[in-house]
Each structure stands twice: as C-alpha cells, then as structure tokens.
Amino acid sequence: MDAFPDAADAARHEIEFVRAPGRVNLLGDHTDYNDGLVLPAAIELDTWIAVRPRRDGLVRIASLQSSERAEFWIDELVAGVAGAGAGLRPMARRAAWSDYVAGMAWSLREAALPVSGFDGVVDSAIPGAAGLGTVAALELASAVALLAGQRLVAAPSLAALAQRAERDFLGLDGGIVDQFASAAGRADRAILLDCRSLESRYVVLPAGVKVVVCDTGSPPGAAPDAPRSHESIFRERRADCGRAVALLAEEVPSVASLRDLDSATLRKHRHLLSDTIARRAEHVVAENERVAAAVAALGAGDFDEIGRIFAASHESLRTLFEVSSPALDAMVEIALTVPGVVAARMTGTGFGGCTVNLVRDAAVPALQRVVANEYPRRTGLTPRVYPVAVVAGAGPA
Predict the structure, then answer these.
(1) Span 27-49, pLDDT tens digits
(2) Of residues 35, 178, 215, 329, which has the active-site annotation?
(3) N- to C-terminal Cα separation, the chain
(4) Is residue 275 among the annotated active site residues?
(5) Can you tell me the distance from the alpha carbon of 231 to that of 221, in angstroms, rounded to the nearest whole number?
(6) With contact defined as beta carbons under 8 Å apart, do 339 and 366 qualify?
(7) pTM (predicted TM-score)
(8) pLDDT in tens, 162-184
(9) How far apart are CA 60 and CA 348, in angstroms?
(10) Beta-carbon neighbour count of residue 395 at 10 Å?
(11) Residue 5 banded pLDDT, cuts 50, 70, 90
C-alpha cells in the first residue's frame, strides 16, 4: 500500500478523517448477556482512520499499531472466511484486527447499504488490552469510512450491524454494549441501555466531576496466578448464569433470563441453586438494581450514594462473581484514599484491565500522583491514569 501523507497534506490527497470513541462502563458488568441494564459512556480515547475514498469496492487498510496490512473486495466477502480477494482461508479462532473491518463491510453490504471502498490507515489512542472498547471503536470507525461519512443508519442500528459482524461474519459471541456506546455516545452523558429491548436514554453526569480511568497495567485475564484462561472462566460464568435460569424456571416459569428476577424472588428460590450458581445470580440481579439506583443518584447529585453503589458493585464482582484481581482491588483501594474521589470500582469483564472512578475536578491531580507513587510499590505494575471527557459517538472527525 502506498504510504499516506501526513495530516498537513490531507486536503491535497483528498484524505478524510473519521473517528469512533472507546467506552467505559460506569456500572453494570456481566449484566449485558443476561438481558440486563448497563450504564456505559463513550470516552475521548478515540480510534481514527485516515481515509482516501475509492471509486471501486476495494478496501486497503493498514494500522500504525500493527505491521499487518490487508486488502479485500467488499463484494467478495464471505461469512466465516478471511482474506477475500487474496485467497480465502478459514477465519482464525482469534480474529486479526483487519477482520473486524472486513466484517463491518460484510454486515453493511448484507443490509443493502451503499458501501464504498477506501484506502485507510488506522491509529488509536485506546489502550489495546485494557477493556475499553478497542474493537468496537475500530468497527464503528470502519462503518463511517465505508459509508463515506453519510449518516444513513441510526446509531442503535449501526451498533446492531457491528454486533452482527462479530456474530455472523467472525463467529464471535459478543454483546452490544461496546458498539452501542461507541455509536450513540453523547457529550457529558452516560447511556442507560436495556440490553433486552435496546431501549436507551441519556443520563446527565454531574458537573464538577471527572470520569477517570485507571489502567492496572495487567490486561484482562492476565492475572499471574490464574490457573485457566480468561476466556474459559468467562464462558463458565455465562454457563453458570444459564444454569441458574434453567433451574429457577422449573418453579418460576416467567424467568427467561436473570433480568426477570428481583432480589426477593431470588432469595425465595435460592434453595434450588448450588451456592456457586446462586452467588453468580445474586451479582447479576443486584447489579441490575444498582444500575437503576445509580441513575437516580446521578440525577440527584447524591455523591455519597454513588460511592456506596460503586463500592457494592466492586465487592459483588470480587466475592460473588469472582472476576476481580489483586491489581484491580489495589487500584480501587488506593483511589479511595484520595480526598475528592467520589467512587471507584473495577470495570469490564475482569481479571485485570481498568477501574473507573468519579473524581471531583480539583482532586484529579492528587489521584494521578497517589496512583503513580503507591500502585507500583504495591503491585510491581506500571499504571496509566486517563482523565477522560465523555464524548459524542462515531462520525467524521
């Protein structure tokens, strides 16, 4: 692929720029695949693509984060295979980054949308292994490029098309939270998303409080003492939730997913479940309730209540769902020693990755200093602290 000129030469070379944000989940982890409630926000850690439009259906793409380059003809894409246009091969179990671009092109084409080829170079400010929606941002930026910047699809539908790309083209069983937040984000607002109906509404974040993401430096699933892979534990947790539904449905036929339970009903029928299965269900049911409570607390500006909700969520993920890690626990504990930190918890699937913190504006520098000093001493890991703006969703840059 020919080298792209720098941004200063963009106009002369007919180069356009598109972007899509990463996301952080303020609350609601492991509720998405149980048809539950989540509270994500799009954050200013973006993925960009420098795009030179083409008049044919060829996509040629490279990344500043990878030595891999790829090209494919949009009309030749076939679900379940990669390398279209350059010799088909079965899709690898772990998809290459360019396969997500191809999957997005396939999904938009299958939806009969007018997709166009382009030459593109990807760059990203999203940490690649931090659980902040890296893949979704690439998918959504690719969608904007493929649609030539035209807003032909509403953001929720575009998110669903990205999810379809993962499920039907790549064969991955992913949720929709990352794609929804990256597509539908709005400045200074979180999104209350119902993962069953895909109904959503925006939740205004309080003035004077910053969202701060703390990267533990330990990628999700990278706990040094983990006896099994992150993927296998994640599959086990999903299976545990499914077992809980199957067992409870014998006495409560209206239960089609853990979303259909409240805490009182679960307590009444807990005897049907093993202790492990019951604890998994308890987390999901209470986390749905916490999301709703957090929305109310944010609306009221009740920072004390928000702090309690975040703390309860982290403890539930640690003890009931068992997906925290020493690195995540240390990061939360350190953050909460800093005056002005309103709330702190792990975010994402767990076993590493990031915490999310709500911090009074004036306290952000203190949090950065304390984490830089204390966290490496306690863990031997190198942290990164990102005070982030909550931003609009994918579109032309």
Answers:
(1) 999 999 999 999 999 999 999 99
(2) 178
(3) 23
(4) no
(5) 8
(6) yes
(7) 0.91
(8) 999 999 999 988 789 999 999 99
(9) 32
(10) 16
(11) very low
